[in-house]
Amino acid sequence: xxxxxxxxxxxxxxxxxNLVSMFFQRASEGGDKPFLWxxxxxxxxxISWTEAARQVASLAKSLxxxxxxxxxxxxxxxxxxxxxxxxxxxxxAAKCITVPTYITxxxxxxxxxxxxxxxxxxxxxDSKLAKNLVPSVISSADADIIIGISDLRIGQSGDFDxxxxxxxxxxxxxxxxxxxxxxxxxxxxxxxxxxYTSGTGGKPRGVMQHHGAILHNVKGPSEVIENDFGxxxxxxxxxxxxxxxxxxxxxxxxxxxxxxxxxxxxxxEKLASNIEDVRPTIMxxxxxxxxxxxxxxxKTVEKQGKMPAYLLDKALNIGERKAGGKxxxxxxxxxxxxxxxxxxxxxQRFGGRMKAMVSGGAPLNPDIGVFxxxxxxxxxxxxxxxxxxxxxxxxxPRTGLKMxxxxxxxxxxxxxxxxxxxILVRGELVMKGYWRNKAETDKVIKDGWLHTGDxxxxxxxxxxxITDRKKDLIVNDKGDNIAPxxxxxxxxxxxxxxxxxxTGDKRPYMVGLxxxxxxxxxxxxxxxGMSYDFLKLQANPAFKSAFGKAVDRVNKELSxxxxxxxxxxxxxxxxxxxxxLTPSMKIRRHVIKERYEERLGSLYKK
Length: 606
Fold this sequence. Notes:
With about 600 residues, this protein is of the alpha/beta class. Among the domains are: about 20-185, Rossmann fold, CATH 3.40.50.980; about 485-600, ANL, C-terminal domain (GMP Synthetase, Chain A, domain 3, 2-Layer Sandwich).
């Protein structure tokens, strides 16, 4: 690996007027060095910086030739792969706006985003993903172009034109010079992408992220890497969906800003082997992955016998004392021994050259952070939201890795605490607003300050600590946002269900606490020849099975992350009298969660 470089490279980011110009500059510096890697036919295969730049420029010219104009929105539906990055950059290079969407979206989700964004074109990776997408394109008033990265096997086009990726990326090196010159006048204030995030009203809202906001998110982490770790020839392993604002900025544009290589993971099942193959220096991940890795590490060490298990226990005890500010001098000999024995073996499982694993997208349990720190792996917890492009703060060694905080704000980012405890943010990272939704924009941006909806404080070292969430949005353990009101509203439309509350914060899936409709329950009892008893009925397996069909119907209309995987019954209806409803008939989530904490928790046990 090259010698550490600390030449204030992060300051160069201020000189770029847009993301595409930054890319072309890094491509000219990178030349024939590898940039994007994907595994095919049993081997990792690279695309060089030069080749990526040629494809970006060629695709940008092709997008204009097939009719796209500056400001047109282009939806991008694909798994993580080199073509995702090339398409994203080409859309922006054509002076259009990228609209990333999740591959798990339902047809209705696609329809809403197409209709709301007014996207003219869609780039989709394969026929499997096109299956859910094409019906929405047909129904769309604006979309009339579909580009398939691979053969979509669509028999006829109908009211839209179909283009093949391979035909659109055939170009020459002259295209690069031409497009590089053309994009130079794209300003930092111009919209780069519209990333949809679930709102509390249920319908996804499009966050307009401008070039400057994402460049701000490149500069901040670059300064952390450069000044806390030293900048080398960095290698990233991209795992989280690129349609998520976190991976889009931190897993794609941040490495581009560093001139780093990006490897695209083959998925969760092969992630461990991918890490050992790729030997990344930086990984952007969500808390759930750390929890999985923690369990695997513990099991692996325990299988190796008493001595490795003893050393693991010692490492964790020492780490916990240090994290709590109670480190002991007499632990030093054991630490030195662990540094030569256990820790190198653990680090090798992560490739052996990992500088930092950055956790974001959802809150991290401090115990998980302490676990990895104890084993010599640097774990940094970040904090942000899509409306801030998305990174606001991040832990860093130089301010002390306090795992119950999310660290200090990134460079050029202002954070203050409102009188009611809400965290407010100001800076170039703040979105311009929600697409076609001024009313919601005005609610969250006031006098230039983004109102995050999170409650917290700033400690004596300038680190931000999150203590509560002002808004009801659920963030699962993978960082996906779920609007509970949408799902609850769909559930209570079913004749069997009177009331519903779903939960799943920091959890792998959604669960529900449901109240059966008394009239439906009474009718069901009579049909079964049973006497009606509200509590006894809920303990009846046949009743629960019949009732569960309502949940199944709703689940068919929900995306993967929204589905209610398990449910339990409440003892009685939510009411104003038991303080589970407000006078305006809204459920009091904190009251219900506290009362049924054990019951809801049991839904996550095997």
